[in-house]
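Progress report, Aim 2. The chain analyzed during this reporting quarter is listed below.
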Amino acid sequence: CEPHIIESRWFLNHKSHYKSIDIITLVRDPVARNISAFFQNHEIFFPEMNFNKWSGNLEELWGNFIHKYPHDLPLTWLDTEIKDVFGIDVYNHPFPFNQGFTIIKKGNIRLLVIRVEDLTVVGSEALSSFFGRKIVMAESANVGEKKGYSELYRVFLNDIQLSDAYLKRMYGSKYVSHFYTKDERKVF
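Predicted structure tokens for the chain:
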């Protein structure tokens, strides 16, 4: 069992011991998130592949992404990690598209949900609202284009072909429909 699942289960059994619990989570275009996570976590999912010194062909790389990567993670994460652990069903709370973030309260738990696509614009406002004091966002540090695999990442993004079925599954999900407008989904 994954360590974070063990920790979540422990927390689930002990959450009433805390005076207050503040949680911050990000949501993101699931296809962009999956590609980014595929590269970020390649050593976990594909330990035999060294993306920093890639010498294989792109078809092999795309095949691993398309056929072996767990694509449903962003679609189910809010249910398995937030709803099941903390009892907050994010989908029961409307998301203010124009604001780019929302704060949900349930008992002693407060949850801040921010769209990654809006983070640079509303991040400081969202965090300041959540914590009740002025917060200034730091500069992004975990950026794929600045890593050892940046050239491979760029080529991968430019050339990958995703099936209509995959795109419909991802962009037709309740996750995407909840956090993004129809126009935003069309752009994706």
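The mean pLDDT is 88. The beta strands are 21-27, 101-106, 109-115. These observations will guide the mutagenesis work planned for the next reporting period.
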